[in-house]
Amino acid sequence: MPALPLHADTAELFNITGMLAGIEASGGISRALLAKKLGLSRTTASTIVSRLLAAGLVAERSSDEGPRPEARADGRGRPGILLDLDTQRWFALGAEFHSGHWAFAITNLKGGIVASATRPVPEEGPESFLSTLVEGLKEAMLLCPGELLPAIGIGAPGLVDCGSGRIIRADDLGWNAVPVGETVSAALGLETYVINRNRGSGLAEARFGAGKGVHGLVYIGIGTGISAAFVSDGSLLHGSSYSAGEIGHVVMDAEGPVCRCGKRGCLQVLSSGLAMARRASALIASGRPSSLELIPASQMRGEEVCAAAAEGDSVAAQSLKEAASYLGLAVANIVTTFNPDKVILGGPVGQVEGPYLELVKAEAARWAMDYPFQAVRIERGHLGEFAGALGAACLVLDRKLALALGTR
Ligand SMILES: [Zn+2]
Questions:
Q1: What's the pLDDT tens digit per position in 76-105?
Q2: At residue 301, what are phi and psi to the nearest 5 degrees?
Q3: Given 80, 141, 283, 341, which residue has the most CB atoms within 10 angstroms?
Q4: What torsion, rounded to 10 degrees, do the Cα atoms 11, 13, 16, 22 define?
Q5: How far is the CA of 251 from the centre of ligand 1 (A)?
Q6: What spacing in Å lies between the alpha carbon of 347 and ligand 1's midpoint?
């Protein structure tokens, strides 16, 4: 359907933006209270509400959660009617790459996932990664139960320049200069927003999961690599050039193994899923028996090491313990410097049930400054495998007003 033309001057646009944000933050608010909170006249507020209703961004519901009433043409509404985001009309699409596959999620305007899918990337290397993404997005679009906001959010591995939509480098995979946003925009004709996958997952946990309402939050995603999201009062910190959170390349041991970034002893060569798998493979090669010996060394993943450790496999347990000791030290240093209220472990490795979380906690307790450590909670993420896709969709949701009104 055609976008609603927006003939708004700056003040009007400011009011529309404020009103939509107010409705979203409230989770359901009456016209009168909203107008009062924003310092708007009832007439101005009613005019704006009418436009938001017509654009399908806002819907009315009764305060007793009963069936949705019809909106009145004058936008004034009746007593007992609350304004809330419309969860039926517009949807957002997000994608994220982890564990050798793309995960896709379609969400309503409140971030509720209404459809999801995964698609394995058949070959190593950025070409297969990009072509699978484009094909998967085309298929995912068919799952949308309504109208898609005309943009796509993508969570990609490595250091991502959010301005250009390119992966600058993904050292765990050995990739450089991968034009993710450009490729998707050219193939689908849609605006594309690209973010580091763990920054995306952290954003989703901050809004909808284990980090909801948390003031100072650190999300650490552990998979083939390691990176983090630093979130302050719901806002993701990007840093000067989008590399805030690149803890995978913090040097933990200057004499340690060489990282693909060129330095030695980076956290991710010591503690990532790949590091766990490398350790387990080396122990198996030295003759130690393990349930993991059935998996070829080149195909072993950290998730499998974690799962085997939870089952009592001693090779897996040793590999996990060594990896967790470095991550615990890194968490301790983050707790001491950032003083977060919560640290969330996530990603394919971080979300596996088992001894990992407790090992990291114990090591963090050993090395962190006591005072900030007393204030922090360390736990697993709540959102599971589609956290990154949901976080990527949040980038689209954040622009819903302009996208729905066609004013971007
Ligand atoms: Zn490195």
A1: 556 689 999 999 999 999 999 999 999 999
A2: -115, 155
A3: 283
A4: -80
A5: 7
A6: 19
From the CA of 333, how far away is ligand 1's center (Å)? Answer: 17
Query: Are residues 371 and 294 part of one domain?
Result: yes
The CATH number that applies at residue 170 is 3.30.420.40
Q: Which of 48, 67, 85 is the last residue of a domain?
A: 85
Q: Which residues crowd ion ligand 1, with CB under 5 Å?
A: 249, 259, 261, 263, 266
Verify that 219 and 182 share a domain, yes or no. no
Q: CA 290 to CA 14: how far, in whole Å?
A: 62
Q: How far apart are CA 196 and CA 260, in angstroms?
A: 18
Query: 262 alpha carbon to ligand 1 midpoint, in Å?
Result: 6
- Asked if 221 contacts 347 with a C-beta cutoff of 8 angstroms, the reply is yes
Judgement on whether residues 58 and 115 belong to the same structural domain of the protein: no
pTM: predicted TM-score of the whole model, two decimal places:
0.91
Task: Quote the CA–CA distance of 5 and 1 in Å, as a whole number.
Answer: 12
- Ligand 1 center from residue 277 Cα (angstroms): 18
- Would you place residue 113 in the very low, low, confident or very high pLDDT band (cuts 50, 70, 90)? very high
Rounded CA separation 132/158 (Å): 18
Distance 292 CA to ligand 1 centre (A): 27
Residue the block writes with tokens 């379609």 = 106
Q: How far is the CA of 151 from the centre of ligand 1 (A)?
A: 33
Do 79 and 100 reside in the same domain of the chain? no
For ligand 1, the distance from its centroid to the CA atom of residue 230, given in whole angstroms, is 19
Give the range of the structural domain holding residue 297, as residue numbers without chain letter: 212-381
- Looking at the structure, tell me whether residues 117 and 73 fall in a common domain: no
Q: How many structural domains compose the chain?
A: 3
